[in-house]
UniProtKB/TrEMBL annotation:
Pfam families: CMS1 (PF14617). Residues 1-20 have a biased composition (Basic residues). One of its GO terms (cellular component) is 90S preribosome. This is Protein CMS1. The lineage of its organism: Eukaryota, Viridiplantae, Streptophyta, Embryophyta, Tracheophyta.
């Protein structure tokens, strides 16, 4: 009897230690995730020049920033964004019909902003499985006329990818509707010359204007999630502007 009691006590101690270890590991993982999200928000704050209050940072810390586990795998981006919509992801990302009073024409649920047309197309590859029924909208100037895009946006759009200057023109033309937007993907991955959305001077300035005027308030109010694709924790942004660098066709 004494032997069995000692055995039960030993097993109980082992379970308690295992539980404490699991709780500690979970706590550390949550703490690291929170630290990464806070660092990402600080980067966004620094890059945009917007000063968030401590209360705003506290409210945004848990929900605002989407983490892409492996920014080198474009398919991970699509899967990460898909998870935001839960079980209704097909309705938001795949359906092809305008729904009166619910889904307006030209109102994407996901909008990607990149520094160039090539980057826009590259990121859309991560969403191919969602765009078979409802094609993604390409919102950049290269080979595409503004009027053609305005006509395209008279149909349902779930996913769109564009450059800051063209996105602004389409919003101002009341062709691009932001009422359904839930995820804003910012492409921070440097191109072959080392430039990105936030480091290429002209494009950066155009992005900041668009972000402050059309997306900042929605982010603060909690209705918009920001995905910093290509962002690496611990790696700050550097101004890589070079004299004579050619601004890409956006």
């Amino acid at each position: 009897m004494a032997s069995e009691k000692r055995k039960r006590n030993t097993n109980s101690d082992v379970r308690k230690k295992r539980k404490r270890k699991e709780e500690a590991e979970t706590g550390k993982a949550e703490e690291k995730s929170e630290e990464r999200s806070l660092e990402a928000l600080r980067l966004l704050q620094s890059a945009t020049g917007l000063q968030l209050s401590s209360l705003e940072l506290e409210s945004l810390r848990q929900d605002c920033v989407l983490e892409v586990p492996n920014h080198s795998d474009i398919q991970i981006l699509g899967k990460t964004v898909k998870a935001v919509f839960g079980s209704s992801w097909r309705e938001h990302l795949c359906e092809g019909s305008v729904v009166e009073g619910k889904v307006n024409a030209g109102s994407p649920a996901v909008l990607i902003i990149s520094s160039s047309a090539l980057r826009c197309i590259h990121l859309l590859r991560g969403f191919r499985s969602f765009t078979k029924q409802c094609h993604a909208a390409k919102l950049f100037a290269k080979h595409l006329k503004l009027q053609e895009q305005i006509s395209l946006l008279k149909n349902r759009v779930n996913i769109a990818s564009g450059t800051p200057s063209r996105i602004k023109k389409l919003i101002d033309a009341e062709a691009l509707d932001l009422s359904r937007l839930q995820v804003l993907v910012l492409d921070l991955q440097p191109d072959v010359k080392g430039y990105s959305l936030l480091t290429l001077p002209q494009v950066r300035d155009e992005f900041l204007e668009v972000f402050k005027n059309y997306f900042y308030e929605a982010m603060i109010q909690g209705g918009l999630r920001i995905c910093l694709y290509g962002y690496q924790a611990g790696v700050g942004l550097k101004d890589k502007h070079k004299q004579g660098h050619t601004i890409p066709d956006t």
